[in-house]
C-alpha cells in the first residue's frame, strides 16, 4: 500500500515536471507589438496623463468619474477603439490607427465619425450623436468638435482633460438652451438673451 502511494507520487511529480518543461518549450519569446498596438500603448499613456482612467470594457463601472473605455461594442457589430466617459455618460470617440496612417486619412475620419452614431440604444451618453471626436496614430492627435458649425480637425498636443470636456459640454448645452429660449419667445425682445 505504501509502495503504491510512493509510485503515484513519483508519477505525479514526473508528469508535473514534464508538463512544466513542455509549457516552457511552448512559450514563445516576447513578440514585438504590432504597429496599431504600439499606437494604443502611446494613446493609453496620453489619455492617462490627461486624467482619464483607461480600462477595458469588462473593467468599466459607472462610478468611474472620467474613464476611457477600450473596444466598446457598437451597433452593426463594430467596436470603437475608445469611448470617453464622464459621470457615467459617453462624451467622445477616440479612433486609433498605426503610425503610418496620416490623421487626415479619409477612411480614418469616416470610421471615427461613424462611431458617433453607433452607440447601443441603452448606452448612456451626454448627447447622441456624440459631437467630440479624436483620431490618433500613436504619435499625433487631432480633434474635431461638431458643436462648432463647419469645424475641421485640428492637431492638438494632448487629449483634453476631463474638466476641459465638462467646460465644452456645459458651454454648448447652455448655448443650446439659450437658443431654444430665443426661438420660443414669440416675438418678445431677445436682446438680453443674445449669445456673445
Report mean pLDDT, rounded to a whole number.
Answer: 80
Q: Indicate the overall shape.
A: globular
Series of secondary-structure elements, N-terminal to C-terminal: HHEEEEHEEEH
Number of helices: 4
Strand arrangement within the widest β-sheet reads: 1-2-3-4-5-6-7
Strand content: 15-25%
Largest sheet: 7 strands, mixed
Q: What level of helicity do the residues show?
A: 25-40%
As a whole number of angstroms, the C-alpha radius of gyration is 25 Å
Could you list the spans in which at least 5 consecutive residues all have pLDDT below 50? 4-9, 11-25, 183-196
User: Cα distance, first to last residue?
Assistant: 93 Å
Number of strands: 7
Tell me the structural class.
alpha/beta
Q: How does this structure look, described?
A:
A 7-stranded mixed sheet has the order 1-2-3-4-5-6-7, with helices on both faces. It is built from 4 helices and 7 strands, in the order ααββββαβββα. The protein is of the alpha/beta class. The protein has helices spanning 2-26, 35-49, 106-115, 162-183, and strands spanning 53-56, 66-74, 78-86, 89-96, 132-136, 141-145, 154-156.
Defining traits:
196 residues, alpha/beta, 7-stranded mixed β-sheet, 7 strands, 37% helix, 22% strand, disordered C terminus
In short:
The chain has 196 residues and is an alpha/beta fold.
Amino acid at each position: 500500500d505504501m509502495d503504491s502511494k510512493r509510485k503515484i507520487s513519483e508519477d505525479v511529480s514526473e508528469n508535473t515536471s514534464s508538463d512544466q518543461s513542455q509549457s516552457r518549450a511552448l512559450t514563445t519569446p516576447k513578440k514585438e507589438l504590432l504597429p496599431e498596438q504600439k499606437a494604443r500603448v502611446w494613446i493609453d499613456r496620453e489619455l492617462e496623463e490627461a486624467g482619464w482612467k483607461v480600462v477595458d470594457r469588462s473593467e468599466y463601472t459607472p462610478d468611474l468619474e472620467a474613464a476611457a473605455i477600450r473596444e466598446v461594442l457598437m451597433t452593426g457589430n463594430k467596436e470603437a477603439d475608445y469611448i470617453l466617459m464622464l459621470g457615467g455618460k459617453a462624451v467622445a470617440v477616440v479612433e486609433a490607427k498605426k503610425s503610418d496612417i496620416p490623421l487626415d486619412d479619409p477612411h480614418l475620419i469616416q470610421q471615427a465619425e461613424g462611431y458617433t452614431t453607433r452607440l447601443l440604444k441603452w448606452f448612456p451618453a451626454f448627447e447622441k450623436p456624440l459631437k467630440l471626436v479624436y483620431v490618433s496614430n500613436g504619435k499625433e492627435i487631432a480633434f474635431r468638435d461638431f458643436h462648432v458649425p463647419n469645424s475641421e480637425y485640428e492637431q492638438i498636443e494632448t487629449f483634453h482633460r476631463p474638466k476641459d470636456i465638462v467646460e465644452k459640454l456645459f458651454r454648448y448645452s447652455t448655448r443650446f438652451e439659450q437658443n431654444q429660449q430665443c426661438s420660443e419667445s414669440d416675438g418678445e425682445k431677445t436682446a438680453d438673451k443674445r449669445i456673445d
